[in-house]
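I am still learning, so can you show me any protein sequence you like together with the matching structure tokens, please?
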Amino acid sequence: MIYTITLNPALDRTLWVKKTQSEDSNRIEREQRYAGGKGIDVSRVLTTLGISNKALGFVGGFAGEELEGRLLNAGVACDFIRISGETRTNIIINEMSTGNQLVFNAMGPEIKPYELMQMIHKIEKLEKPEMVVISGSLPPGVHPVIYQNIIEILKKRGARVILDADGDALKVGIQGFPDVFKPNVYELSRLVNRELKGIDEIVTAASRIHEEGVEIVLVSMGARGIILIGEKEEYWAYPPEVEVENTIGAGDSAVAGFVYGLARGKNLKEALVYAVAAGTATTLMPGTALCKRDDFLKLVPAIKLDMIGG
């Protein structure tokens, strides 16, 4: 079974306005709401691509009820821990006249110690965890060491673990040695404490993380594609030029595409192509909508792949 873990999920409220004005009313032209959070996004895309999975996380209050209801309506299986706080709501404002996008991410509710332990106990008892994606920010009250602990629990259960995080959660979580680590280039730059620009610099930094004990490092670079560094395989896959509507969720979709490939028994090269196709397909969607299966399938044969150093 494939699981995703999102400790700080969100209800994404996406608004469209013609133009933002600081001294006058801003009329909302349209609005959409989505279940959000990095792991939640992975579950949504996996479900869209026909891969059975289950989303885990914390939910609370009316926003949490709406988030879970939206997932259930989308066919996503859930097994959440109920908390006393209210699930956060993020605000995304799309300015139609310029194409600019403003994103306001809320901190999230404080997680009580007993609620955190309920999650740990649930993870310890997961039924046949084959692959588990752990991703996203941490809510208030949760120490970054939680990611390391969860990774260690899951690896003892024989699960293949994918980590996608940033900041302290990443720095501590990576010490649990996930099987797959998926930063974007900015997150990797912060991890190694220097700005990474050229492909050679990115490959060198990713290779060092691999040498420290992470089996596979995937570095997403936006329109430049994704680099994969493994034990014997190093690839760079990149998409064709497309008209980008939105970049929110593209990295999460790439993780889902990679998991999709592994779940179907594909090799790393093929899984990487699926990752780039899924991430690119999401950029074609407005607001915080995620990729469509048809767009994903159309993009797969258009993805270019090079062997690094070859």
